[in-house]
């Protein structure tokens, strides 16, 4: 059992609370000999770092990662890699009330019901701050993938913010140019206006994120509970505030006919199968086919809002909760690098699993 | 790692292929002393059994379960329970072509790419026939749950068939009265007409299923990768043909504001929290709150259709695939008892986990 | 957690009781494409089969194995392999008393204390009959090893029976010529006389078994809890009646000095390291070095004896236990093939693990 | 798979190298609400701390533990506990040669063969310094056990140093009075003289340690691969330099007859079973009976000695190794608190497992 671990062979255990002295992750099973240093991991952490624009929490955390073990002279040794991020901006005074009152939509009440004792500062372990450790692990996973599958590319971006849904066009060059990682200049503009309004009114909104992996080797994933899509669903659903996960066509598959849904197969010029469409999201029977692996997930609106909501206290008294403090009006934004990190970890894990069982040999076509 | 196992403490390993001599599951970790017999498990298997009406495959399988171990004098012993179902109607001649041709939408190609050797008869291991073993395991899980949490109730039903989406009303008394387990007499009628048309034209359609667990104890689930919703997402996504999973509000959460999404909390007459709504689907921070746990998943259309689709052979030649044989025009129908079984297994597993870590003690409210 | 499973990537879950309808094992993670059939597994089972000579239980079990899944056209498919052995000679009348009385040295009392309900027939799950399933799994593991590491050789033999300890000489050609698998014609003769006497007097004796693996690739095993010796210790200790496990020098290492214990290293003619001695038993820091891997384990005397022993009944009454029925006077004999099977499974498991993490690459010497 | 993790529900992952910036452990699954602070853990670490007398390495490490997560206001929260120990006295100059030369008896060669890249400073991950993290985890386990099973007592002590074997008498009051934790004033004196001689001559010796747990609840352990003795064997064998593990009678069981080995059972005055002897070491069929759980393990002599030993370099050249630096002449001494820590972790883990599966209910006797 692994309450706080994910992965089978590339095993990531995250630890730490929002306002404790530090947080981080222990990564076991990392292949040896892979070039890595703190800067390479920091690159990814900086994307998730709070306080970078007005749409994310104003908590100031440098999120500096330290490698405490498992790396020697710039390369992984194959032993556990410990990545630690110290918390520096822990204004726990902002969170004093939480200890006695349950904030609707937050895990305050469920943690209390389960454990009977919890760290209430900033949500403690249930804080989205935990995802910094995932991004660090994802940075390590990317370094390993770069060594093993150089052509693999993982990109995440927003496809929905509140009621605003991105159309089918994706201008990938726009992703890095706007604070939402949305692949559309027009959407970036519209969404900014929408979010400004929400933020000023003390409200928040949900979002949907899409993560695509291009160049995934065929044959990753294992029937029937170690399916690649099963693991991706778990990985994404484990991110704070996620309420739905889709592979390829996703929930819309329910409305299709078999004729429409079939991704017809042809032989490409390079002797590899090509497909007329990708309803499957790159996965058949839980195993990658070589097509793009496409995952989407929905993030619920930030529960910490200035709008008063009815609730109760620990002693059962009715109360009203207004959450001040520093919060993201749309937590979905910072979920983009987190989703990418999870994708990287899952693909690497399955690459290792496949290498174990099949030795990477493949049935031939053509 | 567990390619074919799910669960942490109530561990279910399924085995067997569509056209092998038998299939079944090995259940390890079952609590001792629980009353169980073959009839109790057969009850649930009979719901999934093929050939019961014109909307499911006409393959005739009695799906008789045998308990080979772990039960003595009508009660579980705490040692592994082996449940075996013999395959009797194995007309593998229906499936001869598959060995050389890849059927679009099926796992033929990905299994071949991964393993380089596979049992092609009826899809082999990738066949939905595997889910019979899940339903058997679910029957055992239900028996244990009945002993530990007598008030728990798990119900699954269809909420969408192709383009036909069920409205918000649910007439639960209708569920057992129609072949679709849809909680609406009108929908049952409309869907029958729609499916008849599809079936005659040799086409198929997708579906969405909702599974609700009522009476789930609060405190089940564990941060941050053993979340109850994480495990449910994995469990449902592991079912054949599932492409999306939602908890509570699901993908629609992306469109909400924080104000709308907050499930306001009050104190009920019984001194327990009550909620004004259930956008959360009964889970906060990955831990059950005592509200109904609500999961939905989408099943893609049956890929085996009479409509010709373009594909290639193993040797890379272009071909056209028309799948004859005995197939469900909507595999989503028989996914209902499977979804229920997965829900039962996941809840039991987390009940045992919670009992291990917290001893079942709870923080008090009021 | 895996109560009844061992292995990480080659995962064996055994199931079944002494007097239930059948027993067997579910093997998950087996590499695909490996030639195997029932006869190949039966070969190993026949070595463990009871009733083959006067020194083992006279229970008559053909121990015929059936492959129910995971093999197609004579090769493994990479999906779970189910191996089943039906119980045929279940004279449970012999065991009637056990239900109410605790036999000293047996698990009757501990199973009762733990579970409060158990299958008492022939010891139920605690019977050494469970080891038949291990031997079947070991047969499969050997087939995979033969494909991956053709030069690997695993041999087990007895090195002690009661007070009779084999000297340092081993005449390996004798192993298959006597019922004790002892590598010495003289010992075989002496031990037969000793065991005849014991058997006639209704007593029993302990034994020690040594299992040696030759040709184990270097680099297997992983620090610090997945060490090869850690796993071997667990594997052997999990065999019924085993009370001690040794690697290389074993318990005698306590008496050595560092000077004596050091296995000095030289470079062999083939450019590989050679060692002046093998106190380490082929494992340093938990990782194989390429030397012979040497394991020994001690089996306690059969607890089922005709000599009366004091005990109590379930209701707490004093009683005297005399165990009639069909029992091995020295269970250690049939532990030989079981130890070999465990060695095969552990080595294969670690071969797959190593392939996953390092890709099988090795640091160069010379 | 868990290369660097042990435990199923109380999961300890250790990380860190001998001469890296820090080492520690991540403990997942710790029950909530248990009183703990750094001082309570430091108490146990201080027993293992180097440099306390002339018989252990003169490396000076304060081994100060810091709790970085999982504890709030003096009690565990049920989320991961991170325990970190910074390395302060890292004279890696002492170890410069190791990078190019393989020290006989050390893991230098096997790590190199496996990983092709390693941290050679002080043995890196293979250093016994890793056991500090185990002792820290054991301190936490003891705190939890104190809350759940107040009467449980775990004591470790040496029973052999080189050729000097302790007789059957144990004067437990002596344990804390001598540097060897040997329960005999006379042995302490004799062993000191012996070890002084060895140390001066630059040699080292092996040792045997016994760890006894008194007050272990009956019913812990699970057939057939999660047996309590199986897990104890793995736990002890995973400690650096251990070559053999025994439960109860251990390897000597091979020489006994069934009549001698049977622990006869009587009913005690408190209505609980009492036994005339404890050959079983408190475990039958892998499950605890309530008797003392008795484990012994042998530690090989320190491989770092001043005596020259033949070896080779990475480039295959013959060489002679003399290991200067600061080393324990008998590493077995500091293995005592490590063995105790492993016992505490295993028992706690199985207590949680038993609570999960059986709910702690017990079959009644009398």
Automatic annotation (TrEMBL), chains A, B, C, D:
Binding positions (FMN): 125-127, 240-241, 285, 300-304, 326
Signal peptide limits: none
Gene3D superfamilies per record: Chorismate synthase AroC (3.60.150.10)
GO cellular-component term (any): cytosol
Pathway annotation from the record: Metabolic intermediate biosynthesis; chorismate biosynthesis; chorismate from D-erythrose 4-phosphate and phosphoenolpyruvate: step 7/7
Keyword field contains Amino-acid biosynthesis: yes
SUPFAM superfamilies: Chorismate synthase, AroC
PANTHER family to which the protein is assigned, alphabetical: CHORISMATE SYNTHASE
Protein function: This reaction introduces a second double bond into the aromatic ring system.
Name by which UniProt lists this protein: Chorismate synthase
Organism name: Roseivivax lentus
């Amino acid at each position: 059992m692994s309450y706080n671990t994910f992965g089978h062979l590339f095993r990531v255990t995250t630890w730490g609370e929002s306002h404790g002295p530090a947080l981080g992750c222990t990564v076991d099973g990392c292949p040896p000999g892979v070039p890595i240093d703190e800067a390479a991991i920091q690159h990814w952490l900086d994307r998730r770092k709070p306080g970078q624009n007005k749409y994310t929490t104003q908590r100031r955390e440098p999120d500096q990662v330290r490698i405490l073990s498992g790396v020697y002279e710039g390369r992984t040794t194959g032993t556990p890699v410990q990545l630690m991020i110290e918390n520096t901006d822990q204004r726990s005074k902002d969170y004093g009330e939480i200890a006695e009152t349950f904030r609707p939509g937050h895990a305050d009440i469920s943690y209390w019901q389960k454990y009977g004792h919890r760290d209430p500062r900033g949500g403690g372990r249930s804080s989205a701050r935990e995802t910094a450790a995932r991004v660090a692990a994802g940075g390590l996973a990317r370094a390993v993938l770069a060594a093993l599958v150089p052509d693999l590319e993982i990109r995440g971006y927003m496809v929905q913010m509140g009621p605003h849904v991105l159309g089918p066009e994706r201008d990938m060059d726009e992703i890095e140019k706007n604070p939402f990682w949305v692949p559309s200049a027009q959407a970036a503009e519209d969404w900014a206006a929408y979010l400004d309004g929400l933020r000023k009114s003390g409200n928040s909104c949900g979002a949907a994120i899409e993560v695509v992996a291009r160049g995934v080797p065929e044959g990753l994933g294992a029937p029937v509970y170690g399916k690649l899509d099963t693991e991706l669903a778990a990985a994404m659903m484990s991110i704070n505030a996620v309420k739905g996960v889709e592979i390829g066509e996703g929930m819309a598959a329910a409305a299709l006919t078999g004729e429409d849904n079939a991704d017809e197969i042809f032989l490409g010029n390079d002797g590899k199968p090509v497909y007329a469409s990708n309803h499957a999201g790159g996965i058949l029977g839980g195993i990658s086919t070589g097509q793009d692996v496409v995952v989407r997930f929905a993030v619920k609106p930030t529960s910490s809002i200035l709008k008063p909501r009815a609730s109760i206290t620990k002693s059962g008294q009715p109360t009203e909760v207004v959450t001040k403090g520093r919060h993201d009006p749309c937590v979905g934004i910072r979920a983009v690098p987190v989703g990418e990190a999870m994708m990287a970890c899952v693909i690497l894990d399955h690459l290792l699993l496949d290498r174990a069982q099949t030795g990477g040999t493949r049935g031939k076509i053509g």
